[in-house]
Design brief:
The complex is a heterodimer of chains A (554) and B (382). With 554 residues, chain A is of the alpha/beta class. Helix content of chain A is 49%, strand content 18%. Classes of the chains: A alpha/beta (554), B alpha+beta (382).
């Protein structure tokens, strides 16, 4: 679905079209999004239309917020560092508003038609009000009664069908809204993780630089090790967020889920309280799945941890597997599920269970029903991200006092899956070439420069795509390689890469991004980049990639 | 002259209005004859939709609600139809409205017509008149306008999708209840109009001996119900009476139909949709579905030998015809174009009473009458 994406800001975000003056007819016929830097002006000029327009107005704010202005019109406040994801975030809200508008119009249409049908029905019933001509009347009565009875029966059937359809529709819409919300939260979480990755990258880089300058016996080394340890823990949290937002690569291979469960059971028996019994009901001939074993362990451990908290007095923790086929009918009733062969992995406990409010929010990051300090609020969000990343689907049934069951549907593997390979470590070498570093984070530029200089390279820096293009146009003969950040404000890394390739189709560019999903790397490589590196990158990684890119293309 | 018709079934008034205007904007209409469903009331959003698109804020919008709409390519029960006209300045348009129809239909209509004459700088040759069909007396409305305007009067009364609660006249960017509105046309243009129903009088004529307003109490010494029963041999059910209207004759031997609305079984009185004076000769009429549809051809047959080419058409056809014809109602328009040999821009609405003259063989017109169950056709051209 295409929506008008308007902007009153001259330097409009990607995908938004600048329009100096917005006219009522621009915003009253279609669901639209408007990016503006002055909500007050907009409200003064168009506030009277709020009940009649549908869409989203976006302003740049210090923090994220979301306000209903009217049943079909919303105000979304977004911090600047989300600008590169703005199109994606806004699209979700526009889809939601569009479906609400469609529903409103359909209801109105049905209500008009119902009123009309009622008027016609009363006119028809007048036929029965005359008693003069008995023979004619009886004949009419018989005919009309039969017609009305048939019509009534048909109407009753339609009412039942419609009621069922409406219930199904309402449930599906609720699921869709939930899916859209989770996707939006995922995008936001991914954005936050990306931002933190940049910061961690800078910290990590400085630690490595300092460590290089310190002798092993230097007393400062232990403080640096402590800082490094904290950075690694923070990186773990970011990794969880990336997993939830499905931006974390997974090493999938053919797996027998039963074997993984048995292995996890051995670990669990040593770690969870003795008064909790672990029961297994594993299907024989269970279909293999293509999965990341480490991530499956993560699912089991996270759910087991929750189960333990829910059963302080002890109970049963059941892990069950079975083969299941999801048909078209099932998929019609569940959003984002495709028909096919699946493995159903059920994890149940006999613990305290959850109320409906908790159930509605359990997969959201940082939502926790545990006491302060007991839960991070990322456990189930991570489970959600892993399952979705595996093309799966999950549900949760729970009632207060009656325990909880998670059902995870993972697609059965249909053919052999490639095993992930370990990449041998390469020797780190420096050079004397000139490298242009492009990143909106000053600290990243600084650390990059320091690393590269230390290993003999000459460096230039640019803080956004436009500046990079200017530098490259002036000194392209001297620049041997460009390390380009993908997520920058303004024209962004992707467009910048396109423009660089226009200037020189042989330009050598390594893309750096906090998003580690395979698709990003593939996309940019297809566009013409010579390499891709995840942020935060280690000193060894960046030097290795730089040398490889320079040597291969020389 | 340029005309263009368009319709929309969009339930959202703003979107329906802007769809209409989007289509009509290309001919830069001076006037839009607009026929919306009553569910769009109070019409503010509909007007907003139109004027947010139209470049000319002075475009006149004039129309009425009925029971759906007719348009060149569609007959609808829910939505809006419009006929845009651009005469390139040849037609001088004037608009006036008056409320208070329920209080005094004759006076309100007369004052409205007088305002048209006062505003018009040239003789008003054609007046398009719409009035509330639920509060006003259609006959008195015609008499009031005819008392002032010498030109031909064509139009209908407004309704509300079979609810019988309120009818709106659309003028001056408003939807007005209990009102009469007139659009006066002066200047250099051509038009032709005719009225026909397809119903055929049957049995003997009887003279109305006792009546007040639209209640007929006695015909030829018997109650109205007994008179009808004697003509039809058997008395139809009350709701079927729409199929058996009375033909009320004038001194020239022409008749206007009066459809039955209700009857009083205890007194034998019949209430019809229009005034009938004491002394009026009446006959009971009958019609098959085919007869009703033939009303279109009869109306068109009276418009032969035109000395201009019609650019656009306005159709006012009784809502009762639509109810009786059911799914065959679209055949009215199909038969019109079939007899005409081609399509032309057309819009109109199923009315709760029709207003128009008969065309004489010498191409002159009779006075305009208030009809029921009748099909009125107006051609307009350069």
């Amino acid at each position: 679905m295409e929506y008008p994406l308007l902007s009153t800001v001259k330097n409009a975000p990607p995908g938004f079209k600048f329009q100096g003056e917005i006219k009522p007819k621009d915003i009253r016929r279609r669901v639209f999004a408007l990016f503006t830097d002055n909500i007050t002006d907009f409200e003064r000029q168009y506030g009277h239309l709020f009940e009649k327009i549908a869409g989203v107005i976006i302003t740049l704010e210090r923090e994220i917020f979301f306000r209903n202005k009217s049943p079909g019109f919303f105000h979304l406040g977004i911090p600047e560092y989300f600008m590169s994801d703005l199109h994606e975030i806004v699209y979700l809200y526009l889809c939601l508003v569009d479906s609400l508008q469609f529903e409103k119009n359909e209801n109105k249409k049905h209500s008009i038609e119902l009123e009309r049908a009622r008027a016609d029905y009363y006119a028809l019933s007048d036929y029965f009000s005359v008693l003069d001509n008995k023979i004619r009347l009886e004949q009419l009565v018989a005919e009309r009664t039969a017609e009305l009875r048939a019509a009534n029966e048909k109407l009753q059937r339609e009412i039942v069908e419609r009621k069922k359809a409406e219930e199904d529709k309402a449930r599906l819409e609720s699921e869709l809204r939930h899916a859209q919300k989770m996707q939006a939260i995922g995008t936001l979480a991914g954005g936050i993780a990306h931002h933190f990755n940049n910061l961690l990258h800078a910290i990590s880089g400085y630690i490595q630089l300092l460590s290089l300058k310190k002798k092993p016996e230097d007393p400062d080394r232990k403080y640096l090790d402590q800082i490094d340890h904290s950075v690694q823990r923070a990186a773990q949290l970011v990794k969880q967020l990336l997993t939830f937002s499905r931006k974390m690569e997974s090493a999938k291979r053919l797996i027998d889920l039963n074997k993984e469960i048995k292995r996890s059971r051995d670990l669990l028996e040593r770690t969870i309280p003795k008064m909790i019994n672990i029961d297994l009901e594993l299907a024989e001939d269970l279909r293999p799945i293509s999965a990341d074993a480490t991530q499956l362990d993560q699912i089991i451990l996270n759910l087991a941890s929750n189960a333990c908290d829910a059963m302080p007095e002890g109970g049963h923790f059941l892990l069950k597997t079975e083969n299941i086929d999801l048909d078209e009918e099932y998929c019609r009733h569940h959003v984002e599920v495709k028909p096919g062969s699946y493995v159903l992995f059920s994890i149940s406990d006999t613990g305290s269970g959850m109320d409906q409010y908790t159930l509605d929010h359990i997969f959201e990051p940082y939502f926790t029903a545990k006491e302060i300090g007991k839960g991070t609020g990322l456990g189930l969000a991570t489970v959600f991200g892993i399952v979705k990343n595996h093309g799966g689907h999950l549900t949760c049934d729970s009632k207060v006092g009656q325990g909880t069951t998670f059902r995870i549907y993972l697609p059965a593997a249909t053919n052999a899956t490639k095993m992930s390979k370990e990449i041998p470590k390469a020797e780190v070498r420096g050079g004397n070439e000139t490298i242009l570093l492009v990143d909106d984070e000053a600290s990243i530029l600084e650390i990059g420069q320091a690393i590269l200089k230390q290993f003999g390279y000459r460096t230039l820096t640019a803080q956004h795509g436009e500046e990079a293009l200017e530098i490259y146009r002036d000194a392209k003969e001297d620049i041997d390689l460009i390390i380009l950040d993908l997520g920058m404000p303004g024209m962004g890394g992707r467009r910048c890469l396109g423009e660089l390739l226009k200037i020189d189709p042989n330009v050598k560019v390594i893309i750096a991004s906090g998003y580690s999903a395979e698709a990003h790397a593939r996309d940019t490589l297809e566009m013409g980049a010579v390499g891709f590196i995840n942020k935060p990158y280690s000193l060894r990684d960046i030097l290795k990639k730089v040398r490889k890119a320079l040597d291969e293309s020389a | 002259m340029k005309c263009k018709s368009v319709s929309s079934e969009n339930v959202d008034p703003y979107n329906a209005g802007s769809e209409i205007a989007d289509s009509l904007e290309e001919i830069k209409p001076e006037v839009i004859l607009l026929f919306p469903s009553v569910h769009y009331a109070d019409f503010t959003d509909l007007y907003d939709g139109i004027f947010d698109v139209l470049e000319n804020p002075d475009t006149i919008i004039f129309g009425a609600t009925g029971d759906g709409f007719y348009e060149t390519n569609r007959v609808g029960s829910r939505g809006v139809a419009a006929l845009g006209i651009n005469s390139f300045g040849k037609i001088k348009w004037t608009v006036a409205t008056r409320t208070g129809l329920g209080e005094d239909s004759f006076q309100a209509s007369r004052e409205c017509a007088q305002e048209i004459l006062d505003k018009a700088e040239e003789p008003v040759r054609l007046a398009i008149l719409f009035s509330d069909g639920l509060t006003g007396d259609g006959v008195k409305v015609i008499e009031g306008a005819d008392n002032v305007i010498a030109g031909t009067i064509v139009g209908g009364t407004a309704g509300d999708d079979r609810k019988f609660e309120r009818g709106y006249v659309l003028a001056n960017r408003k939807g007005i209840r209990d009102a009469v509105g007139i659009l006066g046309l002066s200047g250099d243009f051509s038009f032709a109009t005719n009225s026909a129903s397809g119903w055929k009088p049957t049995g003997v004529a009887g003279v109305v001996e006792e009546a007040s307003d639209n209640i007929i109490r006695q015909i030829e010494g018997m109650s109205t119900i007994d008179f009808v029963k004697e003509q039809l041999v058997t008395l139809p059910a009350e709701a079927e009476m729409g199929l058996f209207p009375l033909a009320a004759y004038d001194s020239e031997g022409r008749f206007q139909l009066r459809a039955s609305m209700s009857w009083d079984r205890s007194t034998g009185e019949l209430t019809v949709a229009g005034r009938v004076e004491k002394g009026t000769p009446v006959r009971v009429c009958t019609a098959s579905i085919e007869d009703i549809l033939s009303g279109v051809k009869i109306s068109l047959d009276g418009l032969k030998n035109l000395d201009f080419e019609a650019t656009g058409a306005l159709v006012i056809s009784c809502a009762a015809r639509k109810w009786i014809l059911g799914s065959k109602v679209k055949e009215e328009t199909e038969r019109l174009f079939s007899a005409l040999g081609h399509k032309i821009p057309l819009a109109g609405y199923p009315s709760f009473g029709e207003i128009g003259p008969f065309r004489n063989p010498d191409n002159t017109y009779t006075d305009s009458f208030f009809h029921n169950e009748t099909y009125i056709l107006l051609f307009i051209g350069p």
